[in-house]
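Submission sheet (multi-component)
Chains listed below:
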Amino acid sequence: MVIGAGFGGLGAAVRLGARGYRVTVVDRLAGPGGRGRGFQQDGYTFDAGPTIVTAPQMFEELWELCGKKMSDHVPLVAMDPFYRVIFADGSTFDASQDTDKVRAQVAKMAPNDLAGWDRYMTRSEGIFRDVYQKVHDIPFRTIWDMSIIMNELIRFEGYRTVYGLVSRFVKDERLRQALSFHPLFIGGNPFAASAFYCLITFLEKHWGVHYALGGTSKIADGLADLIREQGGVLRFNEDVTEITLNGRRATGVRLASGKTIAADIVVSNADSAFTYRRLLPAHVRRRWNDRKLDRAKYSMSLFVWYFGTSRQWPEVPHHTILMGPLYRELIRDIFVKKVLAPDFSLYLYRPTATDPSMAPAGCDSFYVLSPVPNLQSDVDWTAAAEPYRRAIEDRLEHTLLPGLKNSVVTSRMVTPLHFRDTLLSPYGAGFGLEPVLTQSAYFRPQNRSEDVDGLYLVGAGTHPGAGLPAVLASAKILDKVVPDAKQLARH
Ligand SMILES: Cc1cc2nc3c(=O)[nH]c(=O)nc-3n(C[C@H](O)[C@H](O)[C@H](O)COP(=O)(O)OP(=O)(O)OC[C@H]3O[C@@H](n4cnc5c(N)ncnc54)[C@H](O)[C@@H]3O)c2cc1C
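Outcome: structure written.
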């Protein structure tokens, strides 16, 4: 039994199915993908969430487990450049797999930083190989398991922040931004997340950045097909309201309709804090009690505006990061002060740059994303949303998309309220618990529940964390902690 058809839940279902489990997946949404679902509106196709596909082999493995090739079902296209960063002064930086191209840009932008850039890339590779490769798909059961990374913590200065480490290698503020913004993609604060996350720069270079033709949601659809072909069942538009128990052992789930589904094991892909607080009674929660959940740090949230236009901007790349003038201050407003800053940094997604099928002929489909504080702030999104959207539209009109205001033909937006009320994430956090050292590995809710037997957790709120490769890794960890179906049947 899997609660939630996000990427973590889908990955878990495929892996359990391949090991002989008969799997039922229940999700309150109308289709698969969770944050990574897709939707159509007025002839335009939108990805709701993830757009940057890294570590493609994590997806490929799931098809291989079913004796298939992913490329026969969901073709991936390698992106070059990976993305364009536009700084407040108008200068640009294209991230790419091509080392020469990247070094040439650094040399032009800040010649004195070139040697530091090269040394940084070596550091990023070291963290990738000696930390990420070692720990991303293994369970952390006891505090002693942390010893695996203690040496590396010192060796790679994992006790520093991402921005802190980057700043030791390069001096140019634009390069510091280009190398340090990545934690934002997984809900982390570059000024607080461990320097271990500096691995992302090398991970992108090593495996490339990819796009799934038809949008990321096509991968979710493909995984749902694999589950059905294995004999599994997906039930949509159904809410799980409780994990049923016999003593401290999970026995299945109760749905909002009152019906129960019995199960040998329960895997929750719902937000981990929600799973503990709302789906389980307080008396079984020894570790993840209300006090601990109250004290936890929750990741930032997001404002996303999806829009289709009646014309195209061919010069706008597939992925653009538009940095605002104030980087540190903006991040402090989002994570620390928890106020809606008057300024923003934006991520603009234009899949039609690669894939014309995402919009009617001659048109563009976009989304623009702005990181915002979660609902621990006082922002009233019912009033703030439309003015905020207009401010973003204005910024785009005056920068990348002149003529935008007269060309928007379809539009939809989501605010932190969507993450709280539809995706059931406490405080509308976009990425579960914030990725800081004290909430990572052993300190994050574990993949095999510490509190309830027969309950397992996958997805952004458990180890290793948010982002598509990480949530697929959480599903892979189940292979190490869930007993074989036959073994379970004998008990
Ligand atoms: C706008 C946005 C952009 C992003 N961009 C990227 C990117 O480019 N690259 C990248 O790698 N990552 C990106 N991420 C992060 C990534 O999308 C997420 O970390 C990942 O998709 C989360 O997957 P998950 O397995 O945790 O499940 P989720 O996607 O969170 O899905 C959980 C599912 O559980 C269901 N559920 C919850 N509670 C219940 C219940 N009680 N009953 C029934 N169903 C329930 C929900 O409906 C949902 O479908 C982005 C995230 C967002 C929001």
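Remark: The chain is about 35% helix and 20% strand.
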